[in-house]
TrEMBL record:
UniProt binding sites for GTP: 165-172, 190-194, 212-215, 282-285, 314-316
Pfam families noted in UniProt: DUF1967, GTP1_OBG, MMR_HSR1
Family to which the UniProt record says this protein belongs: Belongs to the TRAFAC class OBG-HflX-like GTPase superfamily. OBG GTPase family.
Binding positions (Mg(2+)): 172, 192
Gene Ontology CC terms, in alphabetical order: cytoplasm
The protein's name in its UniProt record: GTPase Obg
Role description: An essential GTPase which binds GTP, GDP and possibly (p)ppGpp with moderate affinity, with high nucleotide exchange rates and a fairly low GTP hydrolysis rate. Plays a role in control of the cell cycle, stress response, ribosome biogenesis and in those bacteria that undergo differentiation, in morphogenesis control.
Subcellular location per the Swiss-Prot or TrEMBL entry: Cytoplasm
Length: 441
């Protein structure tokens, strides 16, 4: 089964934690801190692979993660960086945020490779925190969090000309007669379940790509049958050839079929019918009755009124095809060769960032402020508040994360108590906060 949609979860690598260690060598009794930095987490990269034509690879595996950075080591050794993960997709794939539906990137044209999610930065080792007043820091910086997102992948076939029509009207036959494509052809409905592409070569070293869009049915725009999967591929086509059964086989009425096709396209997206349209009445060699002749004339008159170029063809016997292809090429030349590329709707730089982690504030009574949440729990786990002024590191974290500022908005003043889980601190203004505020100004 052709796969043109997929939903996958992707996560970049977490940054490795900084290391806490001290130089211990013979004749160097107090060598100082030498904890190395953590490694950077791996990136999630999306890359176009011209050898792919579907999203089949993502149907069975739905979770992807880049490598985490490793923790630093002693002797100032840097942790190993996490391994990047490259996801390969066919050209024309749209990357969307599955939660919001917003477009992240259109992997078309020159956009062939993007860093979708960056890995977390590695944390600094304790060697970076030595100061004249704190020469043996027993704490290090944790690595940055990974980034994660659930992606909706949607493939939209890239072709110059798209063949539209109800099942069994001869689209696949036409494509096989005028290009190098070899779609399956048989006299039953829904032979074509996959969009097929073929290169049409004309005289004078001219060519264009033609796509056989699987047959539509009434209700396709409402998702009936495989409607959505078929209709989405029309977006990329610059010219549309609507093929109808000119002989009215199986009791069909050519003009009604054409109007129904247009109605389905317009219901799905009105922009589709703004594209140049050609109408081709196929199977004209099968016309035998006056009723069939009249039905064909009604179709031709309607196309003339709508200013649609109209052609009578027989794909099976290769009759009338060349003028049809010439008209398609003429229309392509008239509208230029710019590919339809969709604009991103998100800020890729901050995509998937876990706004670090949530913080919960409470002010249960006068003079007491509670600060909790995963972010605080995580930081406490990496900080030694009892030794070597590790509290100074934590205090700086409180200021840089805007926690002190938020508490002051809630009414906190000097002398009040800040309680973080089982730890209690008395708040006082200090030079760290003043310095931080002066930088902001």
């Amino acid at each position: 089964m052709f796969a043109d949609v997929a939903k996958i979860y992707v996560r970049s690598g977490k940054g490795g934690n900084g290391h806490v260690s001290f130089r211990r060598e013979l004749f160097v009794p107090a060598g100082g801190p030498d904890g190395g930095d953590g490694g950077k987490g791996g990136d999630i990269i999306v890359e176009v692979d011209d050898g792919l034509n579907s999203l089949e690879a993502f149907r069975h595996k739905t979770k992807y993660a880049a490598g985490d950075g490793q923790e630093g080591d002693g002797r100032r050794m840097h942790g190993k960086n996490g391994k990047d993960l490259v996801l390969k997709v066919p050209a024309g794939t749209l990357l969307k945020d599955a939660e919001t539906g917003k477009l992240i990137s259109d992997m078309s044209g020159e956009n062939r490779r993007i860093v979708l999610l960056t890995g977390g930065k590695g944390g600094l080792g304790n060697m970076h925190f030595a100061t004249p007043s704190m020469q043996a820091p027993k704490f290090a910086q944790p690595g940055q969090d990974a980034r994660e997102i659930t992606l909706q992948l949607e493939l939209r076939v890239i072709a110059d000309v798209g063949l539209l029509g109800f099942p069994n009207v001869g689209k696949s036959t036409l494509l096989s007669m005028c290009s190098n494509a070899r779609p399956e052809i048989a006299n039953y409905h829904f032979t074509t379940l996959n969009p097929h592409l073929g290169v049409v070569n004309l005289k004078g070293d001219r060519s264009f790509v033609m796509a056989d869009i699987p047959g539509l049915i009434e209700g396709a725009s409402d998702g009936v049958g495989l409607g959505f999967q078929f209709l989405r591929h029309i977006h990329r086509c610059r010219v549309l050839i609507h093929i109808v059964d000119g002989a009215g086989s199986e009791g069909r009425v050519p003009l009604e079929d054409l109007k129904n096709i247009h109605a389905e396209c317009e219901s799905y997206d009105p922009e589709i019918l703004k594209k140049p349209v050609i109408v081709a009445a196929n199977k004209v060699e099968l016309i035998q009755s006056e009723e069939q002749e009249k039905a064909l004339k009604d179709l031709e008159k309607y196309c003339k009124d709508m200013h649609y170029p109209f052609f009578k063809i027989s794909a099976a016997s290769n009759q009338g095809i060349y003028p049809l292809l010439e008209e398609a090429y003429k229309l392509l030349e008239g509208i230029g060769k710019d590919e339809m590329i969709y604009e991103s709707e998100v800020d890729l730089e901050n995509l998937g960032a876990v706004e670090s982690l949530p913080i919960k504030y409470e002010h249960p009574e006068e003079g007491l402020f509670l600060v909790e949440g995963p972010k605080m729990e995580k930081m406490l786990g990496y900080t030694n508040l009892e030794a070597e002024k590790g509290f100074l590191f934590f205090q700086r974290f409180m200021v840089e994360q805007g926690i002190i500022k938020e508490l002051k908005k809630m009414g906190m003043k000097e002398g009040d108590t800040i309680k973080i889980f089982s730890h209690e601190f008395e708040y006082y203004d200090d030079e760290i906060e003043d310095e931080n505020e002066s930088k902001e100004e």
